[in-house]
From TrEMBL:
InterPro entries assigned: DUF5681
Chain intervals for the UniProt region annotation (Disordered): 1-27
Protein name as annotated: DUF5681 domain-containing protein
Segments forming domain DUF5681: 6-66
């Protein structure tokens, strides 16, 4: 094995010239195959331990069986007050502060207003660009 003066291998030379034998499985593949072979037995032991009160086994079993619970907000009717997006956002914050609107729903409404402001901004920029292009083409003629 030849190395350069800086200790690296010369081009075309490696530290393992023979390389890995074709078909050799890496550690994670061997582990996965071993688990697959005894999967039913492992599940049985896990469930037995969970039933016996093992908190770690119970947690693992429940995490695999039960989907995570997501908060579900009931539909609300809400009047946005204000002419501008800023005023409408302020009305949402006020409703949250007064307990008329739950914070999760309020956060979603504020995010929707933020998204709308971005869309509005793009629309306004497009209109301005169209106006400028029209003005420039009229000047050229």
């Amino acid at each position: 094995m030849s190395r350069n003066k800086d200790g690296t291998f010369s081009v075309g030379t490696s530290g393992n010239p023979a390389g890995r034998t074709p078909g050799t499985l890496n550690r994670s593949t061997r582990l996965r195959l071993a688990i697959e072979e005894s999967g039913d037995e492992l599940i049985k032991v896990l469930l037995e331990n969970a039933k016996a009160g093992d908190p770690a086994a119970l947690k693992m079993a429940l995490e695999r069986i039960v989907s995570p619970v997501k908060p579900v907000a009931e539909p609300v009717t809400f009047e946005l007050s204000g002419d501008t997006l800023t005023e409408q956002a302020q009305s949402i914050l006020k409703a949250i502060a007064q307990g008329e609107l739950d914070p999760s729903t309020g956060r979603q409404l504020l995010a929707a207003i933020a998204d709308l402001s971005k869309i509005t901004e793009v629309d306004e920029l497009q209109k301005r660009l169209d106006t400028l292009e029209k003005h420039m083409s009229e000047k050229r003629q």
